[in-house]
Amino acid sequence: MMSLKPRNVDFQETWANLKETVAGVVGLKSVERSVWNTRFSDVYALCVAHPEPLADRLYDETRNFLEEHVAGLLQRVRGSAPLENNDHNDGLLARYVSAWREYSQGVAYLNSLYSYLNLQHVKRQKVSDAEIIYGSAATVSCPEHDSRQLEVGELGLVIWERVLVRPLSAALSGRVVSALAAARLQAPDPASADILRTAIHSTVEVQSFLVRGGLVLYHQLVLEPYLQAAATHHAAFAAALLHGGDVSHYMRHVLEGLEREIALGNKFLHSSSTEAVRSCYERAAVAAHLPTLHADTERLLREACEEGPQAQQRREDLKRMYTLLRPLPGGALRPLVDAAHEQAAREGHAALRGTLNKDDAHIHFVNAMLALHGKYSKLFNEVFSGAQAFIGALDKACSLVVNARPAAEQPARAPELLARYCDCLLRKRAAADADTDDKLAAAIVVFKYVDDKDVFQKYYARALARRLIHQLSASMEQEEAMINRLKAACGYEFTNKLHRMFTDVAVSADLNAKFQAHLRETMQRCSAGFSVQVLQAGAWPLGGAMAPLAPPAQLERPARLFEAFYRASFSGRRLAWLHHLCTGDLRTRYTPRVYHISATTPQCALLLAFERADSYPARELRDTLQLEGDSWARHVRPLLETQLLTATGDVESEDGDATLSLNLQFSCKRTKLRLTQANTPTHQGGVGTGASGEAAEQAHCDDDRKMYLQAALVRIMKQRKVLRHTELIQEVVAQARGSFAPSVAMIKKCIEALIDKQYLERAPGALDTYSYLA
Known about the structure:
The chain folds into 6 domains: 55-211, 5 helical Cullin repeat like (Up-down Bundle); 225-280, no CATH class; 297-488, Cullin Repeats (5 helical Cullin repeat like, Up-down Bundle); 491-537 and 552-572, no CATH class; 582-689, Cullin, Chain C, Domain 2 (Ribosomal Protein S5, domain 2); 693-772, Winged helix-like DNA-binding domain superfamily/Winged helix DNA-binding domain (Arc Repressor Mutant, subunit A). The chain is mainly α. The protein has helices spanning 11-26, 33-47, 55-78, 92-113, 115-125, 129-134, 137-141, 152-165, 169-185, 190-205, 216-244, 247-268, 274-285, 290-295, 297-304, 309-325, 334-352, 361-384, 388-402, 414-426, 436-447, 453-469, 476-490, 492-521, 553-569, 601-608, 618-625, 629-641, 691-720, 725-736, 744-756, and strands spanning 583-587, 596-600, 615-617, 645-648, 659-662, 672-674, 722-724, 760-762, 769-772.
């Protein structure tokens, strides 16, 4: 039984016995358990010997023994082959691996035999991992490789590196690189692959106990020499591919080579080397030939967008090109992104060229943009995996096409065309279209690219007003859904007036019901079907001066009754009748068939005048109804074209003696007739303006934008108090981006206007800084 009490120990005798067992353990010879236990006790006895512990002496003798043992292994590994020869088949690697397996296992057993020495003697002197990582005074005076800090197992590994690996470093490195090069061309047999893998990983395992720099030896002996040789091979391989074929052939085989190289690294090298192997290959085989790759980007993109079997092949080529260029630094991918942007923009401009002045321009415009966006979204998702750089390039291209101007001094047509497209879908005649909701949702894709969203809002609001006033909407649910989509894209402020218009329609319906109830209560009657819409002047884009009109007698009494009812219900509100927006329904009683005529109020007044006579002088009717100039011509012309009225002479001339007569022989296949006022040069397409009104419309839009920018400037400066010019410009642009893209010149004018109004001032001593004046 082992005694734990310290005692006098004869070191020479004890070490002699211990050394014999150490040699057997390191040489992987059989050691009986009783002998192992006795030697374990000897190690303990030496460490606690009396009167002085002999641990340091034991440690030194063990180190000397291991150095001698590894020196013998060095001679065994070196053999008789010349070290300068880098032939990996000369047996040196096999002998090295055999010696390493034996020695590393033996040292591990030896570390267990010396466990008491490691625990009680070495670890007390050993620098902690934290001190090694973060540094301390102890690490300065006691370097990490001080032998007194190493456990016996670690000591054995250090001796292996110093005594055996360093003298053979060049030979081992050369043979490993040669074997890896051969494995790249032809997979080695399992035994040779195992030897190569073990030899490489031994350079990692021999330093595995280090807290820092555990891969230094591996990098010096294996990775760096291998990458240097591999770079030369990859460069020659890529040059041969380009010399022997086109870019498609080159990219296909380079990608295959990359996969082989990564597989080779994963099979033999340390796991930390994957990125280094990939980077080495990409620099040598790809980065060196970037001009050649970039030269073909435009052609590949163009052919990939065409129809036919070649297009799919070009998409595969682009996919390979993206895979090759994406990991490279320094903007290697930028030419491909730029080429994608230019291709999409070029196709978009070509699709819209010469089509924006046709009657169906709005339909062609939206369909062309949706087709362009869908086509390239699918292409970029398929080829470039939906990378953000290419999605951004598509967005820029679509924005460029959508906001293109017919001429430098003319505004973009996109806001008007998109508003007309939405108007057509939301009108009653589109009710039969089952996919109207899908088309309206798709229109938002185009809307997001429109810079002048404030201009679109004006056109859309004008068209919505016509639909609501004249009850032309196919579905109020669709109207509401479209406004919600616009709100989601631009915020509540953008659709505030549109929501108020809807509110007015709902309130007007309730108001009419109350008016009818009031009439019943007061025992009064008015014309059948009389209804009124009360609209807020600030919410509805009714625009322009109201044309004067003397309403027919049939409308005067109900109008007066409603005015009295409204004034009694609401105090302080003023009503203004907009006859030019009113419509009425009439029925004929003088024809064999009953016709239902829907017409404007002036047209109704004109037809009702013939209840007292069959013909009137045109001048008398014009004076009675107070219709002058263009207004008279716009309303009378549809009546003549439908032959409800007949004329003798020029009825549109103010000086003529023309006469208007009721056509008592009127006949028509349709029993329902809808009359509208004739178009004029300033009223085209339902929501647009003609050439004569374009300048005024643009000026009105600029005024609105200046007011918006001034309000934004005041809000920003009120919050920030003091701000530099460039920062103020950037914040204003960011705030206005949801409505329009303001020019710097317009922002500067607004700043000057606010300085004149004493909202802002230039900070004293800093001309590029502004201060807010409370």
